[in-house]
Amino acid sequence: MKCAVLFSGGKDSVYATYIAKKSGHKISCLISIFSENPESYMFHTPSITKVEKQAEAMKTPLLIQKTKGEKEKELKDLKSAIKKAIEKYKIEAVVTGAVESAYQASRVQKICNDLDIECFNPLWQKNQLELLKDLIKNNFEIVITGVFAYPLDESWLGKKIDGDFIERIKELYEKYEINIAGEGGETESFVLNCPLFEREIVIADKEISGKNNSWKMEIEVR
Amino acid sequence: MILIIKICKDSLHDPEFVKPIEDVLKRNNIDFNTVHYREITEDSFENIDRIIISGTSLKDNKFLEDLELFNWIKECKKPILGICGGMHILGLMFNGELMKISEIGLTDVFIEKKYLEIQGKKQEYDLHNFFVKSDDFEVFGTSKSCAQATKHKQKPFYGVLFHPEVRSKDLIVNFTKL
After folding, report:
1. Is the pTM above the cut of 0.90?
2. Kind of pairing, strands A141-147 and A214-221?
């Protein structure tokens, strides 16, 4: 089936792309939504402009849709992006990296249902620890680009997701109920390399901003 | 031992509609086997004491063309839990009729009478364009649109239209302890 992936450049959407491709589907395009609202209900915002480099590394067309990020307008913009993918790339299905959020998953399901195309959510309800371990096992190189919950702080920015990361975040999960894979918006990530990429993406520059338990690392990549 | 019968046409839907059920059983140390409905043989039921029939995606209605492959249900003596598409199949085996009603996303469900140890009002995750009406089933729970939790009037066959693997994992565990 020809698929479009709702693509943020973070670990979940890239891993969902990997699973869809591995199961024999064609990834015809990636759809990225650039929200002007940093508090967007639907879309992952940090480092999203860097997805162009990831799409290049995957040799996959990227369809970009801008949105002001107002709650219902975001969904109209998403629907119009999916419509464009149907017209331009003849897609028959949308793939998402939704794990826990019924809000996000059901909005996309409704849009696909309206447009009469399939919707695949291969990470749906996946155990958080299992997800992180799968990413490491499948050689995903992922960097943390945002932290948004106590007791996470600036020191977590730029960390790679590896065995040591899993151990540290597991401790925090047990103590503070931090969601291990960051699905509740506790962390944001960016994939630098994985089996889908023809070349590794390198961080050329970074700028850190934030305070207390809310920090972001804007990166320039090449 | 539980037999999970998956009904997804495309295996990329298995992680979404089958694996979450398997994970609930795994976390509760409950043994299971999973088989696709097209691959069921007599051996599939060996050492099995309960059966769960999964759901599938909104656009996947292939199983409705293959209903003759579910005729074994009519003679089955073991408890069955049908989830969404699995509930449709149960109803259709017993003079049911499919009717078009869509509910997508979190839905208020009211379980009026105790049903697999669950009762009261709860938000459940729904993902369907149809529901099944069968007079052979008693309704235990409803949303504002249709029946959400039913049980066959004579047999230990349970049908839920919502996906308990998302918000009511206990319901699946309670079914395994019947």
Report:
1. yes
2. antiparallel
Beta bridge partners, B120, equal B111
**Bridge partners (DSSP) listed for residue B130:** B100
- B64-93: pLDDT as tens digits: 999 999 999 999 999 999 999 999 999 999
CATH topology (fold) of B2-176 = Rossmann fold (3.40.50)
What ipTM did this prediction achieve?
A: 0.96
List chain B domain ranges.
Answer: 2-176
Q: Per-residue pLDDT tens for A167-176?
A: 998 888 888 8
Q: How far is A33 from chain B (nearest CA, A)?
A: 22
For residues A183 and A101, the answer to whether their CB atoms sit within 8 Å is: yes
Mutation target for B interface from A124, A130, A134, A183: give the one with most B CBs within 10 A: A124
How far is it, in rounded angstroms, from Cα A191 to Cα B45?
44
CA distance B106 to B123: 6
Flag whether residue A42 sits within 8 Å of chain B, measured between CB atoms: no
Query: Contact A194/A161 with Cβ under 8 angstroms?
Result: no
Judged by DSSP in three states, A76 sits in: helix
Is there a contact between B165 and A20 if contact means CB atoms under 8 Å apart? no
Question: Which residue segments constitute the domains of chain A, with CATH numbers given?
Answer: 2-120 (3.40.50.620), 128-221 (3.90.1490.10)
Please check whether residue A98 touches B, CB under 8 A: no
